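G., before I forget:
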Amino acid sequence: MERGIAMAKKSYRAIVVGAGAGGGVVAKQLAKKGISVLLLERGDWPIYDEHINDELISQRTWVLGTAFGPDGEKHPRVMVRKDGSRDIVKPTDGWDYNHIASCVGSGTVSYGAMAWRFMKEDFKMRSTYGDVQGSTLDDWPLSYDELEPYYEMAEWEIGVAGDDAQNPFAPPRKKPHPMPPFEYNKEANVLNNAAKRLGLHPFPIPMLRNSVPYNGRPACIRNRTCCGFACPVDGKNGTQNTSIPEAIKTGNCEIKTNCKVTEIIINDSGRAEGVRYFDDKDKGSEAFADIVVIAASAIESARLLLNSKSKLFPNGAGNNYDWVGRNLQGHAYTGAFGLFDYDILDYIGPGASLALCDYNHHNKGIIGGGLLANEFNRLPYLYTGVRPPGLKRWGKEHKDFQRFTYLRNSQVVGPIQEMPVFESRVQLDQEIKDYWGMPVPALSGERHPLDHEHCKFLSARAEEILIEAGAIETWQSVGGRGGPSGGQHQMGTVRMGNDKTTSVVNKYGQLHEIDNLFVADGSVFVTGGGFNPVLTIMAIGYWVGDHIVDLWSGTGLKS
Amino acid sequence: MKSSRRNFLKNTGLAIGGSLILPACYYEPAPFRFFSQEEAECLIAICECIIPADDAPGATDAGVIYYIDKQIMGHFKKYQQIYREGIDALQKDCKINMGFNFESLTSDQQVKFLEMMEENNEKLKNWVSIRPATFFNMVINHTMQGFYGAPRHGGNKNYMSYRMLGIGYPQIVGQNRYGKGDSNG
């Protein structure tokens, strides 16, 4: 009987939950092959003019709110402290929330847009470095070579400017980037010369921004408020202005915004039938389809699986071996600051324009490593968080520091590859529910102690570059302590693997035991690389999407 | 659009020029949304210690008090009680230890007293639900936001701090939004 109702209500072939870097791509891959898609997004379409370049309401500084959500009181989370105490945190409460944008395009609307391919070693961490005590470090079931064509799709369809020929550590590629790289700003020119004198290999950062007009949209205007903000001329590329509009244009994709999915409906024979959600008027609703794809970001995707309990999966979808929500990772940022006796910053956006990958792998005594780059422009309030050790944080001394170093500082910084930890995790909170009555995510765990050691290594290398560049004073900012990690680079909670007892999805993002349920976002990452993850999330979107199309063509997914 | 924009820039210059000849303790009398006049005078003095005026404007000139007073009725509602209790405790301890209200002290004395707060000095006895350092830390953060953040939130009047830092104000983004020649270059 229940089944009959489901069949009668079914009006889509696939439902995709989350219109970010992964979901926005999957929706397009399915729609263009004639598979009808319902794309559900809990946020709204982003509107530039609502928040323009306001530093205090942005995705980088959110003391008065987030520009692209989530915001307000509806989306609390619980942070479980080391001593077991629990704090309820709101999106604007600081980093504890592990906030990620909720809007069409998600973080791709307001990101800094670095477009990194992971290196070959990043997919083979355990084979390369061996077992790490206290870590679930492992190989991906997927190799770089398998993902390479999908990186290429992401670069050409969404749009990347870069030149790997200048990076000797870049993994092999078949086609160059579609757009030429950006020119260095003044700071990057200084650092470029210094890094070369040290025998390093700096190059322009590949960026999901238009260095020339591309895809019918204009070139980047080098706006200073880029990272943390939307682009006023639409020269920054995300799924909101590429794959999602393309999906809609096929006529096979309907997007519903302000829809909050609370549960995947799993029937008694263990297949996904659809989702329960609250629509834009907060009315409870259901949608049914042959295929369900979850791409809600590492914390929310895990939460949704955990909240989808059924006869065969009493602890949540795909969670019979207790791996859903585990291995929550992000990137500890680490580096060094330098002060110069001249204006080294010309304030040409987005700031970050030079990187080097000399320290991503094969560092003595280090497992993995990370890229180093100059930093995105800090607006004046964000800069009040920067000062050398011992400098007063208020009064005349601090005012003078702001005034005389605001354009005379440089930071060389990068994301360290974190060691995944089984106990760093997302669980459903037993008490606190969100506005819609769904249990909120409870985040707990600590970073692996090696992360801080690795950060020390990378910060020291960053400081060497600044000293060589002529900084008159330098200091290190060393990250990698505390936790759990996550943040805007959250990954790892729905691990991909070959063994159903130590992972949740197979190499195609398909749940081991629910063949018509897929995950396609940073959740499936086994390890996070020493790189910003977004291009890899997009590549995973293409990879999972194409696999679903293949299965569909063979009618393996029709019910 | 064009002419109002020009007027805005012109007024900016006037406001900055004007502020330079006023004493550091100057503020425009205006009704506050949350703070009483007495509370506001105390808080203005604290903020001015955090970002004092010199040849560039300080917290008072930039209207930091208006930022805090505006936000505390909205996004910062949760800090209302903390401000009320904090200012009260601060004034009580100030009278006991320094003999006067905070705003009546010399600026050297004010700084000295704030340093006592920063270290949760044991001579400060009137703090019940919040520690002096925690309160002061909050005021530092809010002062920085009001001074360096966007003017539309109540502080950083006419982008004073941007001008001090040597960056263009207001920022022109997206040439397609404004007429030709209407830039700050």
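Chain B touches chain A through 34 residues (CB under 8 Å). Confidence is low (pLDDT under 50) at residues 1-22, 175-185 of chain B.

More on Monday.
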